[in-house]
UniProtKB/TrEMBL annotation:
InterPro entries attached to this UniProt entry: Actin-crosslinking, FRG1
GO cellular-component term (any): catalytic step 2 spliceosome
Protein name: FRG1-like family-domain-containing protein
Ranges of Basic and acidic residues composition bias in the record: 36-54, 211-233
Composition bias, Polar residues: 235-247
Pfam family, any one: FRG1
Amino acid sequence: MSEKVRSSKLKFKGEKGKKKRKRDEDDDGRPGGSRRRGENDAEPEAWVRPDAPNEIRGPTFIVHPSDPSPLCITYNSTSNRLIVSAVDKSDSDEQPSVLERTPTDVSQVWVTTRIAGSTTINLRTGTGEGKFLSCDAHGIVSADRDARGPQEEWTPVIASDGMVAFQNVYEKYLAVDETAGGGLQLRGDSEEVGFRERFWVKIQNKYKQEAHAEERKKKDASGPPQADEHDINKLYQSWGQGRNVLSSEDKKELKKARKEGRLAEAMLERRAKLKSDRFC
């Protein structure tokens, strides 16, 4: 009797299990149609790449495209140390590309939180007691602080190819560096962004969609105010005892202007005309 294979998908604490749903059907009514799913239709927990800095939030997977094996920034909660190591140590020739990689262990995941009203972020370990990634004035990077301050702030910079660089409070960049003994470590004193300073970043789709929703709300809230025809009429078209002198022709003209999105401009023109007529 064969044993039931256990899923290797990484699941985070407090994350709800996804509901089963019917598969798409093709034209013959058979399951498994060829419908391509866009990013908006992807599962909330799917790992996707951010297109803008404000999308980097929640569980975050950071990979450096080193050769022959991509490197991952991880945190060892036992030794309380940052580790830069290969994403996986499999010797198989059939390895997924760096863009197809997803975390296989919670130690490979960082939790990104955003500073309110700022472009900076904090990166906190997903294991242990939650330590913040920090960098001091000498470029030494560590993850041993329980509180966040200026040295724990990072500004993500997304390049045209989608890769991300992380700038610290000293305006220097996070980089993968090779030590004298051939090991690897993180440094935070690079002046420019090159290969060592560029990372692929993945976040969960639900947080990317959350960022999109926030941007839509901001645009809606900051849109041009809708001019109220009644109020403008009352302000610009009346005098004496509040008598409105707007003619039928004027009303038609203002209604047309409102439809064309130039109501305020038309009202100002009408105001100038009325003043001219009044004092002539």
